[in-house]
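In this supplementary section we document a worked example of the pipeline. Step one takes a protein sequence of length 96 as its only input; no multiple sequence alignment statistics are reported here. Step two produces a three-dimensional model, which step three serialises into structure tokens for compact storage. The input and output of this example are shown verbatim.
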Amino acid sequence: MGIDFLDLNFRVEKRFGVQLHVADFPPEILHNNALLTAGLYSDTVQRKINARLRGTGQPEAGDVWPQVRDLIAATVQMDPHEITPESRLIQDLGYT
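The serialised model returned by step three reads:
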């Protein structure tokens, strides 16, 4: 992954207060990052947020998909409504 992916991760960290690492994604993504979809990315963010909240007495976060979709769109200057959970970051959205 390139600069767009790093930019997205920075935006996620700023918005949600979580850092994403390679190990947070399924192993098949490590071998073929072309498989990374917007939905899988959003699910990973959701898991990281909820893991951070566990043990704090706070409820789990609600659905973060709309916010993550907006961050994905902003990174590559697209209309958020053109992005679906099935959109592949590299092939469909042009992530570098």
